[in-house]
Amino acid sequence: MEQIAGQVSEKDFEAALKGLNELNISNCVYDQFKSESDKILDVFLTCHTDGDYQNKIAIKCLNLLKRSCALGESFQNEIISKEPLLGNISKILNDDGIPENVRLNCLQLLANLCVQNKPNQQRILKEFKEYLLKCIQANTGFTNAATMLVYNAFIYKADIGLDAQELLTVLLENVETNRRIQQEAPEFVAIFLEYLMCDSNEVVEGYERIECEKRILFVRYLNEYIRQDQHRRSRPLQQDLFKHLLVDFKKKSDCVLKTVDSYLDGEKTDEVFTLLAFFADATCVEPYGSFLRQDGALFLNMGCLLRQLQTIGKNENGNMFTPVQKIEEILKVKQGNSELNIEQDISFTLKSSLVKALANLSYKNKKNQNLARDMQIMAAILECTNLDARNPLIKEWSILAIRNLCDDNLENQKFVASLTKIGDAENSLLTEYNSAGGTIRIKDGCSAPSPSSRGQ
């Protein structure tokens, strides 16, 4: 390294870069590294600003230091003990005039110094905490390295002055930023969130303390996680977190059961409906489905919610829960031309989710099957067997729900068999069909009506 340092001093950067490329740090012993590391650092600080060869030399020096961290804690400690190191790196990271690849490699060096080294984690986080959090929030090219650094410190329980609430808030802001631009969160943001969701004992307290908007975002992220294929979803959610969310849903859903339509646009209601969508999807995924089927209170809660929303939807003035069944309006919704904009309503797919959950919760579960009959939940599900543009697939889920409710349940089969037709149920789709003399017309909007075709 002494010869390389001399070549840098003489500005013979090409020769210095060639010499650096020939160095093999992986075979270096500690005593040798101790004497050479000062020179590596000096060469880096000389060349980190600009110039093509200087930039390559700076990156090579940082790579040598990063690779040496894998040789053990003593190597990590030797690097961090260099008095000007952290101060110089701080100046470099906060100087936008320094090439981005140099700043990124400096951040990666800090991350490598923290691997399985709690004292280094605490020292680096104490000095760089604000910068690292800003990097995670800002979603820049430095986000992944910054998140890796904080993640390593957190999982090794270093005293870094960060709790689960603050970490969840920062990580979820990054998720939201990436959601708006329709791209996935950086790798270590996802890894960190998966650790919090699946392994951390602090996540429940953190979840309770974050803002309602962030709780909604977190539950949506959990929903996306459990819906992934099994290969990507490697671990189940932390049990305490899952149970806490279940209790939270049953408690907060009372605000819907005990209220009227005018209240249903609030943030708290959005949170309840987000939790509902999460548990509806969880009923489709093991091991969550088996656990939820044993919870009769959840089944009853969802059944009562379905009945309540049907009652609200029957208001004579109509509202976001009133089914949209007119053929013309359904077509407009499909084509994106509807003035109702129903896909933006918090009620969109809500009743479909409820019926889906009830269908899965009644699968081979006699207790829930009987509850559905005794509490008039079966009757509510039978009301959902018509098309509704507000609730895609509600008809199909209703059929599955009735099938599961009647499976190996004689009383429920008798209940369905005892139903007597006393007339045609009110159905705006059929009314529209019959008022046209049994003819359905599809209109182009700018051209003459197409020839009619009689339904078969």
Short description:
With 456 residues, this protein is mainly α.
Write the layout of secondary structure elements.
Blueprint: H1 2-9, H2 13-22, H3 30-47, H4 52-69, H5 73-80, H6 85-93, H7 100-114, H8 118-138, H9 143-155, H10 164-180, H11 187-198, H12 203-209, H13 212-226, H14 239-252, H15 254-257, H16 267-282, H17 288-293, H18 296-313, H19 327-335, H20 350-361, H21 366-374, H22 377-382, H23 394-406, H24 410-417, H25 428-435, E1 439-440, E2 453-454
Antiparallel strand pairs: 1-2
Helix pairs in contact: 1-2, 1-3, 2-4, 3-4, 3-5, 4-7, 7-9, 8-9, 8-10, 9-11, 10-11, 10-12, 10-13, 13-16, 14-16, 16-20, 18-20, 18-21, 20-23
Account of the 3D structure:
This protein is mainly α. It has a domain at 1-124. The chain is 64% helix and 1% strand. The chain contains 25 helices and 2 strands. A two-stranded antiparallel ribbon has the order 1-2. Helix 3 crosses helix 5. The longest helix has 21 residues, at 118-138. It is elongated and about 100 Å long. The chain starts with a helix and ends with a strand.
Features:
456 residues; mainly alpha; two-stranded antiparallel ribbon; elongated
Question: Could you state the order of secondary-structure elements as H and E?
Answer: HHHHHHHHHHHHHHHHHHHHHHHHHEE
- Kindly report the oligomeric state of this protein: single chain
Main sheet: strand order: 1-2
What low-confidence regions span 5 or more consecutive residues with pLDDT below 50?
A: 438-456
Query: What profile does the largest beta sheet have?
Result: 2 strands, antiparallel
Mean pLDDT: 83
Q: What global shape is seen? A: elongated
Cα gyration radius (Å): 31 Å
**Beta-strand content bin:** under 5%
